[in-house]
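User: I've been trying to design a sequence by hand for this structure and keep getting stuck. Would you show me what you'd pick, starting by listing the structure so we're on the same page?

Assistant: Good idea, let's start from the same input. This is the structure you sent:
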């Protein structure tokens, strides 16, 4: 069959590839600090006008998270006013400026290489700027892909965004390793040059992302929102073929009659379900479990436990994210989320029991791998798929912004409470996460609608009922 009848799949995949670069930068920006933080600590510890303690170092290491919450919160407003494509362009600019600013926070105002409290503040402002880019990309990349993709492969294409996030993290681990070379992470070279080179390395993919965004179209659904139906039809025809394009355009038009619909036009339920999907993705404790993984590997007697853990977890994460990508449009969203939740609960409870019984070796190691694997084939990618497609067209931007802001808030809550919870009792910590996993499975089974094979306009009709 010709492209005129079936649409141009190569064009669709090229657009998706550009959009998922935003996901890669999301992963890159959040993980770059892992290699840079020790050199950064040595650098600021030499300041004479303030004491750089562990509390301030914790702030420097996590300040980007503040920007993530802000970026997620304003993403809906920007996606509605600037459009999806221009919002991604803004994110690319923020990534680029953050990379350059974090590399040289002294620019214009301070003497290079002299740590002061003012320089510490400037550095964190640049990291927050990058965080706003991450928050923006985390909401708008899945939204953009969902609004471009045909319904039968939408889940697969949105899932590639999660793959790009994980891949971005792996890339930056490798880049940090290459930059470090034979140096120690806390030696003189790392404190003066190393951490700067790690941050500026993000400027290259950020610039590429920004340039490529000038070659992708605006989404058909946004074009209809701003009364540019002819352009929308052109893009729909190129992606879906001529006969299907007119049908999709008609459906979009029917659900976009009221451009000024308020956030609760379709009731509170759809918003609460979106928020809870985001909350559960973080509350199941993935960050905390992965945080503890290096210790488990070391206790199992593995040499160089931290490095080995990074490699093994990276391979597991990518492999099982691919499982989700190739099954989400075949099996549906709900079955994968329920199976994933139960698998994660088993892994978390096994970690808790192993700790309580003082077990070392294969059992706790496999427990963490099982936990991570089930997360990557379910809540990791599928949560983003559902958030991008569950909301009606006219409120999608606002609703995704609220859901993503909650996601980053709970990311921070889980990450910041885990150390104290772990000191109190590792068994209680992982027992709690396992229980939340079971709660997540029940929530999905009872309240989350299946979106497999449905158009975005079908979801509007569902919630209107």
């Amino acid at each position: 069959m010709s492209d005129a009848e079936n649409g141009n799949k190569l064009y669709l995949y090229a657009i998706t590839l550009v959009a998922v670069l935003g996901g890669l930068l999301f992963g890159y920006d959040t993980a770059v600090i892992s290699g840079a933080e020790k050199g950064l600590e040595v650098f600021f510890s030499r300041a004479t006008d303030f004491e750089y303690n562990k509390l301030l170092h914790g702030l420097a290491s996590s300040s980007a998270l503040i920007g993530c919450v802000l970026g997620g919160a304003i993403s809906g407003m920007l996606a509605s006013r600037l459009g999806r494509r221009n919002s991604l362009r803004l994110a690319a600019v923020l990534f680029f400026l953050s990379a350059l600013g974090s590399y040289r926070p002294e620019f214009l105002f301070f003497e290079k290489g002299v740590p002061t409290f003012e320089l510490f503040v400037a550095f964190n402002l640049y990291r927050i700027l990058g965080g706003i880019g991450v928050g923006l990309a985390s909401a708008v990349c899945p939204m953009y892909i969902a609004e471009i993709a045909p319904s039968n492969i939408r889940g697969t294409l949105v899932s590639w965004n999660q793959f790009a996030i994980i891949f971005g993290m792996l890339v930056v681990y490798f880049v940090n390793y290459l930059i470090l070379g034979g140096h120690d992470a806390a030696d003189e070279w790392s404190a003066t040059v190393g951490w700067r080179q790690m941050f500026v390395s993000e400027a290259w993919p950020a610039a590429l992302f920004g340039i490529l965004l000038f070659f992708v179209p605006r989404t058909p659904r946004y074009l209809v929102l701003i009364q540019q139906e002819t352009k929308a039809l052109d893009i729909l025809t190129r992606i879906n073929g001529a006969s299907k394009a007119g049908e999709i355009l008609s459906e979009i038009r029917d659900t976009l009659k009221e451009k000024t619909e308020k956030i609760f036009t379709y009731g509170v339920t759809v918003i609460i379900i979106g928020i809870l999907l985001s909350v559960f993705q973080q509350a199941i404790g993935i960050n905390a479990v992965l945080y503890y993984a290096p210790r488990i590997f070391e206790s199992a007697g593995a040499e160089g436990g931290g490095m080995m853990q990074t490699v093994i977890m990276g391979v597991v994460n990518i492999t099982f994210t691919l499982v989700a990508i190739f099954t989400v449009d075949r099996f549906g969203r709900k079955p994968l989320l329920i199976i994933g939740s139960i698998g994660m609960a088993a892994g978390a409870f096994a970690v808790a029991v192993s700790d309580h019984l003082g077990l070392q070796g294969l059992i706790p190691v496999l427990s963490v791998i099982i936990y991570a694997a089930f997360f990557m084939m379910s809540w990791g990618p599928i949560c983003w798929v559902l958030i991008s497609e569950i909301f009606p067209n006219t409120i999608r931007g606002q609703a995704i912004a609220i859901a993503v802001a909650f996601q980053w808030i709970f990311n921070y809550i889980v990450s910041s409470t885990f150390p104290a919870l772990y000191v109190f009792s590792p068994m209680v910590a992982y027992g709690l996460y396992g229980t939340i996993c079971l709660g997540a499975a029940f929530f999905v089974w009872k309240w989350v609608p299946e979106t497999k094979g449905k158009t975005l306009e079908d979801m509007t009709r569902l919630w209107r009922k």
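That's my pick for every position. To get oriented when you compare it with your attempt: The CA atoms of residues 345 and 444 lie 15 Å apart. The chain is about 80% helix and 0% strand.
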